[in-house]
Structures are given as C-alpha cells and as structure tokens.
Description:
Elements: E1 8-13, H1 23-35, E2 39-44, H2 49-63, E3 67-72, H3 74-83, E4 90-95, H4 101-105, H5 112-120, E5 124-127, E6 130-132, E7 135-137, E8 140-144, H6 145-155, H7 160-172, E9 179-185, E10 189-194, E11 196-200, E12 222-227, H8 232-239, E13 250-255, E14 257-270, E15 273-285, E16 290-293
Parallel strand pairs: 1-2, 1-3, 3-4, 4-16
Antiparallel strand pairs: 5-16, 6-7, 6-15, 8-11, 8-14, 9-10, 9-14, 11-12, 12-13, 14-15
Helix pairs in contact: 1-5, 6-7
Amino acid sequence: MENIPNNTILLIINPLAGGTEKDTELQIIKNYIENKNYNFAFYQGTGKQEYDKTQIIEYYQKYKPQKIIIAGGDGTVKFVIETLFDEDIIFGILPMGSANGLAKDLDLPNDLEACLEIALQDNFKMVDSILINGMKSFHLSDLGLNAELVKKYHQSKIHGKLGYFLQMFPTLLENQKPFHALISTEDTQIDTYTKVILIANSSKYGTGVIVNPVGKVDDDIFEIVIFRNLDVLLILKILFGYLPLEDNTIKIIKTKKASIQTDIPISFQIDGEFCGEVQQLDIKMETQKIKIATPR
C-alpha cells in the first residue's frame, strides 16, 4: 500500500457552493497548506450523495489525515461531518456557501486565509449534535415558512446568495395560515398554532440573522423557538437584527429531548437541506460531540 505522510490535510470542497466555481480558491488553499509543510489532498464533491459519501470515506481511509477542511456552506458541512461522524478528528470550515450559519456562530472570519490559519491550528470547540428523526443536525432546523424557502431555493435554477434573496420575500410574505402543533418536552407541553418552529443548536441563520439569542453550539441542550406569527413588521425586525423576545408570539424552550406533532404535513429542513414534509419529529441530544476548529 502507498505510504502516505501522516501530516496530510484533506480538503473536501463543494465546487459549486455559493453558486460559483471554486478553481481560484482551490489553488489558494493548496498553496497555503503546502507552504505550511503539510501534504495536501482534496476531494471535489459531485452532488451525488451516495457516491460522494463512499469516496469521502475512501479518501479518509487512504490518507488518514491530520485534519479535514470543509469548503462549502452549511449543507456541505453537515454532509461531511455526518459521513465521518465516528472519526476522532478536528474539522476546519471554510465558509463558501450560500448559507454559512455554523461558521458565523463559531466566529469564523470571511477571509479565506484567516480561516485556513484557524483550521490548521489546534484550538477547537466540542460542538453538540442533535438527532431529529434519525438525522443529525449541527446548526438549525425548522418546520414551516423557512423550510418552504429552502425548498424553493433548491428548486430554483439560481443558486448562491442571490438565489436565496430572490426566494425570500415571496415565500415569507405568502399568506399561509398557521399550522397546529403539539410540542412535548420532559418538562412541558405546548399546544399552539404557529408559522415556524425552529430546532436550534446555535443562534444565527446562514444570513447572519439572529433567531435564537440564547443559543450556544456547545452547551449540551437545544432550543425550540416558536414563532406563532410572522407578519411583515416582525420579519423586518428579525432581518435587521432585533428579535423582540417580549413579543408573546415568540417563545423559546430549552431542552434535551422533545417531540413535535402537527395537524398537517409541514415542510421541514435540516441545516439548509430540505427534507420533505413531516407531521412528527422526535428530537434528542446525542452524547457524542464533534471537534470544529475555532479562533483562539
């Protein structure tokens, strides 16, 4: 078998993350890593999940990398970490997607070389993992209007931040009726009508908008944020960074385990990936955490 140096950095890149090709960024990353005297290897995703999953596992087993760097948005980050979830390794993130919410929550900069510097050093956070109907979430998942936005974005031919923007207001301003939900935790039960239910391991959407001001990625709990109403005024407040917690249409519940039942099938997304329509969610914290490189 080929003798691969154990100082290898394995880059896994989504070449179309953010709606643009990444040839220039790939060369910058390669030069930076090699100039730091690491062996550089990379895998470019194809968008075919089963194939990519198999290839990522094979690359990991072949190179036995010292670190894995993920270049892409929240969806790419989730896919790679989930694929290698049981491996004891530090993941670095280069935020290059349409939505980079986890990177924002970890205070990662926008500058590519600054993120590379962080990815290659040894400081990291032990980030929580949430299991939702058997699927892992490391960032934000939700039922309702935002999941509708994610669905329309994936159906659109225009990707990147422009794609999200073009779908945002038509989706949010649709006159959809609230849906009925029964939310049960170990401590409480809430029977309500709502437009969005957020299952949050962190505080910000990929756009940087704060939707869960008490959220932390490493506190061993998650929050359920209930938006009973989303009128134009509330949407504008949230978009401009003000979440009015005194508004009785918003409620935040902290918990380690919960279930959600709805009266009708509702659009559902996990970490920026549309997962269809559901009427039942079973949610719990996982005991295992993941290591993600963060600034000192």
